[in-house]
Amino acid sequence: MSLKKLSDKLILLVGAVLTLFQIYTAATMPFPGMQQRSIHLGLGLALVFLVKSKAKKPEYQNLVLLLGIILAVVSLAVCFNVTWQWLDMAEPMRLTFPETEDFVFGTTLILLVLFGTRKVTGVAMPLIAIFFLAYAYFGKYVPIAMFRHPGVRFSQLISMGYMGTEGIFSSILGVSTNQVFIFLLFGQLLDSLGGGAFFLDLANSGFGRVRGGPAKVSIFGSALFGSISGSAVANVVATGTITIPLMQEVGYTPVFAGAVSAVASTGGLIMPPVMGAAAFIMADILGIPYWDVCKAAAIPAILYYLALYLCVDFRAASLNMHGLPENEIPKFKDVIKKSGFIYITPLVLLVYVLGVLQYPADKACFYCCCLLIVLSLTKKELRKVLAEDWLTILVKTARSSMTVIMACSCAGLILLALQTSGLILKLANILVALAGGRLWLLLILVMLCSIIMGMGLPASACYIILAILGAPAIVSLGVPPVAAHLFVLFFGSMSAITPPVAMAAFAAAPIARASSARIGYAAWWMGLPAFLIAFCMVFQPALVMIGSLWEIGLAVFFCVAGVFCMTVGLQGYFLSRVSVLRRVIWIVAGAMLIAPETISSVIGLVIGVFLYFVEKTLSKKAVAA
């Protein structure tokens, strides 16, 4: 047997075992946390080294495959050592004075985690981890007094990083083990059984016939599908291949079509009920149920998609567009009748079990997976998919989890270094001092950090780092923790559409056959209202469901009006073309409406109403002429 065939068979074996193990633990929870996390990481690391063993030159391929297999075996051995000895490792004497084998295994696992993280997330996150680990160890040599500390012994880094739950096997990896993986399985099941196509048909039946229909189908299809996939790039690839050509067909430019797909796909990371992996990590860090994160994100997510909807609607009106031909639009009743109960019922159950029954997220999702499988058995073609593709579904789920597993384990090393060195306690004060105690300036600093880190990291990895480094500083100035963490999550996600490295735009470019740079800048321009909404969450906690119904309702009203005004200004069209001066005034009115002060919002509303009648009058004159 060739090394390539052996590697492929091992990928199938390890991927299937990892997913089956996660299904078993979701159903029964038979393992203590340390054991479960070590098995989860061991299988995840092995899968990373097997999947990512690709040589740049063909003549080195066999050598790289062999190295990948060796690293996979070593990963399993090192992690399963923890599974076997975790009780002995928890002994205080052994934690204080690690044995020789602990040094060897611990150092090996740290190196494997750093190397594996580089393979799936790029070089940025492991470099950050190495920097902070070096800082923890060489702390007494740091030249700047405020950052200097006595230094952490190597034995302490090993004992806490490898043998305890403060490092690699921290609660952050526990989130990947207990919650994120089962949601990835749900998403993969839904997609493999036709859920993605169903949601696109559902969006098409509702919005295909209105002006600019394909763009609106892209928005709602991406919102629904992105809430399943949890990845902006995966969302673009899955929905954009259908919606981008349709948008171009009705008259949108390739750049605009690609930008709409990129922005819509990115919003899926913040759209409840199934948000990206970062939302589960946020719930763990804040110590609140996942459902509370969903509730807090609901209004900002709706405002995000409202801004995008208005954007494509105004552009369609300016180009005098129409919807798709009637014969290309499926009937809503037919879409629901055909398979709606199979795909919608599990999502309804998920919302009910999470929101009403208050079940843990992993249990709720496990029941939804079971329901989806049972309902799928009622249709012959879906029974065939389950019978023929069950192994593919298991392996695809495992492969989709690699980024989250590695990001969470590497984040544990960063958290370990920050805690043992005491830097985590200093950083909040340092950031607040840099901002001079001014919240708006601190938010800008954290925003810039989020966007910069997001250029080289997945959204979940970016959120984890900023949740550790930046969010505590925002909270220290009196901001509700959930608002501070959502702010970080928003900008970590928005990095997917922020030039120069806009990954969602890169994914859309080959489909739209347009420049990725131009798509990136167009997407950033469309997403500007979302940037302001993120700031507004901090200054108006009512937007994250903190406050009375009156306060929440008033904040939503002003923000909806503000998003409308800003979109008119950014797009330059409302009933008719808007002059440059009026566009500026529209944008100012929108910013004032979104601003937290009631007086400012009222003034912005007055300006917006005045501009509305001005535009209406000018439009009538243009028609009469």
UniProtKB/TrEMBL annotation:
<feature type="domain" description="TRAP C4-dicarboxylate transport system permease DctM subunit">
    <location>
        <begin position="109"/>
        <end position="549"/>
    </location>
</feature>
<dbReference type="InterPro" id="IPR011853">
    <property type="entry name" value="TRAP_DctM-Dct_fused"/>
</dbReference>
<feature type="transmembrane region" description="Helical">
    <location>
        <begin position="552"/>
        <end position="574"/>
    </location>
</feature>
<dbReference type="InterPro" id="IPR010656">
    <property type="entry name" value="DctM"/>
</dbReference>
<feature type="transmembrane region" description="Helical">
    <location>
        <begin position="460"/>
        <end position="479"/>
    </location>
</feature>
<keyword id="KW-1133">Transmembrane helix</keyword>
<dbReference type="Pfam" id="PF06808">
    <property type="entry name" value="DctM"/>
</dbReference>
<feature type="transmembrane region" description="Helical">
    <location>
        <begin position="521"/>
        <end position="546"/>
    </location>
</feature>
<feature type="transmembrane region" description="Helical">
    <location>
        <begin position="485"/>
        <end position="509"/>
    </location>
</feature>
<feature type="transmembrane region" description="Helical">
    <location>
        <begin position="215"/>
        <end position="238"/>
    </location>
</feature>
<feature type="transmembrane region" description="Helical">
    <location>
        <begin position="403"/>
        <end position="424"/>
    </location>
</feature>
<feature type="transmembrane region" description="Helical">
    <location>
        <begin position="430"/>
        <end position="453"/>
    </location>
</feature>
<keyword id="KW-0472">Membrane</keyword>
<feature type="transmembrane region" description="Helical">
    <location>
        <begin position="586"/>
        <end position="613"/>
    </location>
</feature>
<feature type="transmembrane region" description="Helical">
    <location>
        <begin position="104"/>
        <end position="137"/>
    </location>
</feature>
<keyword id="KW-0812">Transmembrane</keyword>
<feature type="transmembrane region" description="Helical">
    <location>
        <begin position="297"/>
        <end position="319"/>
    </location>
</feature>
<feature type="transmembrane region" description="Helical">
    <location>
        <begin position="340"/>
        <end position="358"/>
    </location>
</feature>
<protein>
    <submittedName>
        <fullName>TRAP transporter fused permease subunit</fullName>
    </submittedName>
</protein>
<feature type="transmembrane region" description="Helical">
    <location>
        <begin position="63"/>
        <end position="84"/>
    </location>
</feature>
